[in-house]
Amino acid sequence: MATLGAVFGACGIAGGSDRPIVYVSEADGNPDVYAIDAETGESEPVKRGPGSEFAPSWSGDGERLAYVVSSEGNRDVIIVEYDGAGAELSVSPDNDDGVGNEGSPLWNADGDRLAYVSERNGQSDVYVSTLDEDGQGDIVTTRITSEESRELLGDWSPDGQWLVFSRQGGDDEVQGLWLRNPAGVNLLRLTDGADSDPVWSPDGDAIAFVRDDLGNNDIYLLKPEDGEDWRGKVVEERWLNSPEEDHSPAWAPDGDILAFVTDRDGNLEIYTADANEDEPPQRLTINEASDTQPVWSPDGDRIAFVTDLFGETEILVMDADGTNQQRLTHNDAKDHSPDW
């Protein structure tokens, strides 16, 4: 396997905050994970195989990458080091049937814990795998949920003390947003609505999420009433109060701005807005296509996104104010799911 460090070492592209964008491309028929330099557009596959690879996720320090490999009816989460040190790791247990069906890998900020969803016990639950210091030893895994409802991962708190996730299906007693600590002990219910896609602000003081209000998606903000303790009362507010569909919130690294996707112009476009609503929303993309999946660069200066303007979906980057838009991928296949 060509490691990320080997792919970009000759170009002088480092990991960490200068890491490339990883994304999924179907250029070779199957979905594969690629890495691309946001400056030059040079790209290489992280791994090619007979199966499918998808859902790439950078660790917070940019030194590790996790992604999902689907092969022979099973899904497995794989971890690789940017610099190529050591072998790739699998979070799946060694069991007789070999079926875990893992997905949705999500790193904590320190890059030593990986949360994901697994069906290894016959239902969709959230697990956390802890790596040792060099990331090459035994993986200690904890199952942190066990309800019969479907659970979808949201985000880690910046301090690594909590995971926020949503529950779907079941009855009104379980749906909504929940918090769980990584040890699988404390469990807190935050909301009881048809809520999804929770993302934590970089300072840990707020969670943005999407609520289905009678068929219309809106972005809400959730905050502790005392400003810091999520174990106490929480307060929710509807953000922007738009009659149109708003979804896919993404915090800027400084926590002052949210990027999001909206159909307020008749099609899906990317906007940004001040988290405190001090300024009106700013439209970043202007076309008749669908522009989606905004992700921020580590320094907050740019945004990568996906558009179908050219036919199949492609990866583009732009400055945080929407200027200097640059197309990175050029092929007749689907490119999507960027992470930076």
From TrEMBL:
Pfam families: PD40. InterPro entries: 6-blade_b-propeller_TolB-like, WD40. Residues 321-340 are annotated as: Disordered. Coiled coil: none annotated. Residues 329-340 have a biased composition (Basic and acidic residues). Belongs to the TolB family. This is Tol-Pal system protein TolB. It comes from Geodia barretti (Barrett's horny sponge).
